[in-house]
Amino acid sequence: MENPKILAINPGSTSTKFAVFLGENQIFKETIRHEDKDLIHFPTVVSQLDYRLKLLIESLHYHNINLEELDAVVGRGGFLHPLKSGTYIVNKEMLDDLKTARYGEHASNLGALMAYELAKEQDIPAYIVDPIVVDEMEDVARLSGIPELERKSHVHALNIKAVSRKIAKRIGKDFQSLNFVVAHLGGGISIVAQRKGQIIDVNNANNEGPFSPERSGGLPAFQLVRLCYSGKFSEKEMLTRLTKKGGFYAYLGTKNAMEVEERATKGDKKAKLVLDGMIYQVSKEIGAMSAVLEGDVDGIILTGGLSFSDYIVQEITRKVKYIAPVFVVPGEAELESLALGALRILTNQEEARIYSVEINAY
Ligand SMILES: Nc1ncnc2c1ncn2[C@@H]1O[C@H](COP(=O)(O)OP(=O)(O)OP(=O)(O)O)[C@@H](O)[C@H]1O
Ligand SMILES: CCCC(=O)O
């Protein structure tokens, strides 16, 4: 199929981003913002499905985009069974796991569900690409120190694979011949050791590694247990504190890095300390992932929203440039990566993978 028309959908916790591509070229892009007050009534992520679909369809109609002209719909992949990297056809087993949030709640769980609903009306395929459960970790990386607490691969895989391909192309080599440490620096932070295209280790963005604008990162375990049993917090409150109210937000009451930087520049010593603390922890994790690659690192790639900040990029670069050249790809290319993932299938460059707990079990 030449130049297929593909709708890509990326549902986030505060937005639904979507774009239409003709072959590799983006011909339309839109972001619908969701305020807290609009989402607060929904008890679960999956219960937002009809609401988000309605807004998306209205927007497509408004912009004269005809669903009947589409060749495929692709959504961001959420919490599923651990999977190999690639493009997956949305099937019943996947939909069932997402509807019941079998592996956890995440806004990206809506990606496959929205794609499926739109695709089935047109009798065209629905896909997901490189979901957040891409798992290429080596066994040695799965150990935590307590047998029942296995380290998991939860990772910004879609953007990390996309920026790695981009930098490999820039330096004129095949992505699968290179070793990268990639730091996705967004609302959450994933730092990976990628050996010849495989993410062999990652700090789980909700559990370990550096603190981020909204997440606590790894915590002193002994003190954490004491806090959990202090009687002051429910389980839900503690989990929210770690994943939504940690990091910058916990110290400074904002998740906005631009605001933190401005405060630091204007002499706010606490803001400067917290900003430098995150930079310190990110650099330390990059060092750890370089050791995973045994120092054989072709490049360190900084990406995600925080990589728009000159100060953050300069400071991390100053600390880690002794390891390998540092490349910066600010923001994320998630919609484009989704469309390219679907395009590889529609143009027969790759075969779509089938989601099945049996086949993909690790
Ligand atoms: N120009 C900028 N300078 C500094 N920080 C920025 C800039 N633009 C965005 N940010 C910061 O980047 C962070 C959000 O990054 P990003 O948009 O990648 O996250 P997200 O998509 O919400 O979450 P995630 O990346 O975890 O999926 C915020 O703290 C935001 O303030
Ligand atoms: C798990 C990777 C995605 C996220 O943390 O939001």
TrEMBL record:
Give the signal sequence positions.
Answer: none
A biological process term (GO) from this entry:
acetate metabolic process
Its Enzyme Commission number?
A: 2.7.2.7
First-level EC class: transferase
Its GO CC terms are: cytoplasm
Answer yes or no on keyword Kinase.
Answer: yes
MF terms in GO:
acetate kinase activity; ATP binding; butyrate kinase activity
Pfam families per UniProt = Acetate_kinase
Reactions catalysed, as given in the entry: butanoate + ATP = butanoyl phosphate + ADP
Q: Which UniProt keywords apply?
A: ATP-binding, Cytoplasm, Kinase, Nucleotide-binding, Transferase
The record's subcellular location field reads:
Cytoplasm
| Family in the record | Belongs to the acetokinase family.
PANTHER family from the xrefs? ACETATE KINASE (PTHR21060), BUTYRATE KINASE 2-RELATED (PTHR21060:SF3)
NCBIfam families found in the cross-reference section: butyr_kinase, PRK03011.1-5
Descriptive protein name = Probable butyrate kinase
Q: Which organism is it from?
A: Vulcanibacillus modesticaldus
